[in-house]
Amino acid sequence: LRSGRRLPIACVGPRRRDRGGGPEAAAKKCKSFDNGGPGVGRGIASRHSMNELLADLRQSVIANELRRAEIFSHCSSETIRRMSGITEVLMLARGKFLFREMSPPAGLFVVQRGAIRLTRLTAQGTEQVVHVFRPHESLAEDALVAGRRYWGSASAVEESQVLAIPRESLL
After folding, report:
1. C-alpha dist (Å) from residue 106 to 61, 72, 152
2. Which stretches in the chain have pLDDT values below 70?
3. Do the beta carbons of residue 8 and residue 44 sit within 8 Å?
């Protein structure tokens, strides 16, 4: 462009020989993209629409992860979509607890990345590993359904990412 200004690639159309095209016309074309006009750049300039786009993308990723969990494999797309809207993503550093034995159930959890170790204290006071949950495995559904306190403690074996569906949203 003659003025030396650069426009995003999505905004630059076919070159015209100075028929009033110039940078102003290209900027106008870019504006039509930003305001929902045709093309790939739709909604790029608006911070509000970018936030909506990111929220939709986040919800889609969560929905895909939930579908991969055995507990949700038979759920309808609509149910998965609704659940993905209420699901929180938790990051756990190695050794951090997701929940502790005898605490009230907070929700249902699905391991997205990493590993979560479920342990239980024995009568002698030692920790016994009951199970190590890997990606796409769910945990704590029994306490949630029965309305009982957690019978074990869950902690991250390594840096982990867990999807949490809050109890009050499920019941």
Report:
1. 23, 18, 14
2. 1-48, 171
3. yes
Q: State pLDDT tens for residues 120-145.
A: 999 999 999 999 999 999 999 988 88
What is the SS3 assignment for 110? Answer: strand
User: Hey, what amino acid is at 29?
Assistant: K
171 vs 161: CA distance, rounded Å: 24
| Site of tokens 């070159």 | 15
**Integer Rg of the chain from CA:** 25
Length of the chain as a residue count: 171
Tokens encoding 5:
């200004």
In this predicted structure, what is the pLDDT of residue 144?
Answer: 84
Alpha helices in the chain (DSSP H): 22-34, 47-68, 77-86, 141-146, 167-170
Q: Which of 145, 167, 151 is nearest to 100 (CA)?
A: 151
